[in-house]
Amino acid sequence: MDLSIRDNPRYNWLLVLGLLAAIYLLINLGLRHIPISLFARTYVVQPLLWGLLAWAILVLPRYRPAGGLRLKTIIIRLALMIGFFQVLLYAIGGLFSSFGRSPYSFTPTGVLTNLVFVGSMLVGMELSRAWLINRLGKKHTFLAVAFVAVLYTLLSLPLARITGLRPELASITYVNSTLLPALAENMLASLLALLGGPLAAIAYRGMLQAFWWFTPILPNLPWTFKGLIGVAVPIFGLMVANSFRTSRPRHRQARREREDSPAGWIVTTVVAVAIIWFAVGLFPVHPTTIISGSMRPTLDVGDVIIVSKVSADTIKAGEIIQFREAEGITTVHRVVEIQEIEGNMVFVTQGDANSKPDTDPVIPENVVGKVIFNIPKIGWAAIVVKGFFTGG
Questions:
Q1: Quick one: which of 24, 62, 278, 319 is 20 to 30 A from 150 by CA?
Q2: Domain 285-383, classified CATH 3.40.50.620, yes or no
């Protein structure tokens, strides 16, 4: 690599972020169009992509972790302890629920292929994470950890699953058992990488990956319990790791304590969790993006509406509601009439741009909520991204 380019910070940022984006796009979209077997796509091409990322990071200018050499060994040991403690809690949870067979192969070939797949992804992710966080986090630790954690949470989850989140039980289960633990795990891994370099993050996440991928018998945990462990342990680890970082000389300690107190980390995590819960409908109100023109001119494509969960008895003619149709999709139309059929109340709905009412009336059980607010056009980005990845 040409040294004049290699030492250019702007080029380095573009290279790392560009490689991360390219790998994610290829895995979630591009590989399906390559005329090779599923096995080759998963166990050959993907490890090669992560290996390319790891190589690119290794040839970039080196750095010293923010924790310094003195703390590096301590942080790596701490990472192993937190990972072990989290795995132990999962195992103890299995004693109270049940255990089941792992879905992965445990033949010599199966173990080897899974080891290459998981190992290459882990090394590529953590080398790049450590490089990014140590370029951002030495002055703005709070923001850097949050940014890198969100970035690597998205990288670790299938895009189709994220864009498919809805205010439904399946999505709520996924958010609590998978998405929120992934966010908490990546917050801790980002701070560990800042203080101890990539080995610290690999020690923590490697312990978890080894448990889920290479243990023949796994606990069948309720999604609530799995989510609780997956969020609580990393947050606890975050506070412990941060206490090492704030052990500074006296002339720096006061400023660091103000900027990076444990309360600040807890508030950030709670806010991040609250935002995700709000987005998927766990709160009494949730956002929805308008994707059709049936409500023009009142609501247009790209508008983001806020829907409030209300009792069907409080809905009046003329109000706009969100409701589920028989196919499972949700629609936003105006209530034009309230009728009673065989003693049961139903809502006759119609789009403002449509000439006729909807064919099927809406029963109260299918009402998601009432539209209470509209934010024009800010949902276009979500529509474009989702259409790009789903082919819509």
A1: 62
A2: no
Question: C-alpha distances in angstroms, 209 versus 5, 55, 129?
Answer: 36, 22, 17
DSSP structure string for 16-73: HHHHHHHHHHIIIIIGGGSSS-HHHIIIIIHHHHHHHHHHHHHHSPP---TTHHHHHH
Contact 128, 57 (CB under 8 A): yes
Backbone dihedral angles phi then psi of residue 68, each to the nearest 5 degrees: 80, 165
DSSP secondary structure, 134-194, as one string: HHHTTT-HHHHHHHHHHHHHHHHS-HHHHHT--SSHHHHHHIIIIIHHHHHHHHHHHHHHH
The number of CA neighbours under 13 Å toward the Cβ of 18 is: 7
Q: Is the peptide bond before 297 cis (omega within 30 degrees of 0)?
A: yes
Is the distance from CB of 302 to CB of 290 less than 8 angstroms? yes
Half-sphere exposure (Cβ direction) of 362: Cα atoms closer than 13 Å: 31
Cβ–Cβ < 8 Å for 353, 294: yes
pLDDT per residue over 4-16, tens digit each? 444 555 567 778 8
Query: Looking at residue 303, what DSSP letter applies?
Result: -
Domain ranges of the chain: 3-280, 285-383
Q: What one-character DSSP code corresponds to residue 249?
A: -
Strand partners, 332: 322
Q: pTM of the entire structure? A: 0.65
User: The dihedral of CA 152, 156, 158, 162: what is its sign?
Assistant: negative
Q: 70: which 2 tokens?
A: 């003195």
Q: What is the rounded distance in angstroms from the CA atom of residue 151 to the CA atom of residue 13?
A: 14
SS3 372: strand
Give the CA count within 13 Å in the CB-facing half-sphere of 308: 11
Dihedral angle over CA of 83, 87, 93, 94, nearest 10: 170
Q: Which amino acid is at 45?
A: V
pLDDT per residue as tens digits for the range 233-274: 998 888 888 877 655 444 444 444 444 455 555 565 566 556
